[in-house]
Amino acid sequence: KGDIQLESGDLNFAGNAITATLGTVKIVGDAEVSTTADLTAGGGVLISSTNDVTLGAVNATVLSGGSATGSITATFDAGASASVTANTGSSNDTLTLDNIATTFTVDTGADNDTINVIAVDTGSTIAGNDGIDTFDIDATGKMATYNGGDGNDVFDVASAAVRATIVGGDGTDTLTLGNGTYLNVVGFTGIEKVNV
User: Fold this and answer.
1) How far is residue 139's CA from residue 141's CA, in Å, rounded to a whole number?
2) Do residues 62 and 86 lie in contact, with contact meaning Cβ atoms separated by under 8 Å?
3) 38 to each of 2, 24, 86, 109, 121, how far by Cα in Å?
């Protein structure tokens, strides 16, 4: 029920679950983590490690990795909380958002990040910020805002059922639309190239 903290060394865990029901999972120092286990942390996940951290499905209201310098890879799926705030640091991070009942507030910080958006709730805001960020947007039915920030960002919208506001930001940004009639895309700005 308390905190779980890893300060140094490697953790390779292939079990089913890592749980800190009421506590915080802290991955700090030069700790390196690679696991496919579900991670539950009632007090959130704090990552400030200088090495890479790969997590399985995360069930926490907060993933705070803004001071991390290693890459962060995490998935928020059906077990995710109703509201999730996730920020990552200055490395090439990968987040997968897959819960239609979760409102996400995401900021992936600097560098070249990948954000896979499968399902999000209305009001979600997903920001890539500095670097060449890739947004793979498959989420349908619920309105979300995507902001690339600085850099030559790529927005790949797979379905005509996607509802989104897309802001490219500074740089040469590309929007690719799959087949269909896009009646639900509310708008896009700061996009220099559109592929259909």
Assistant:
1) 7
2) yes
3) 17, 14, 17, 24, 21
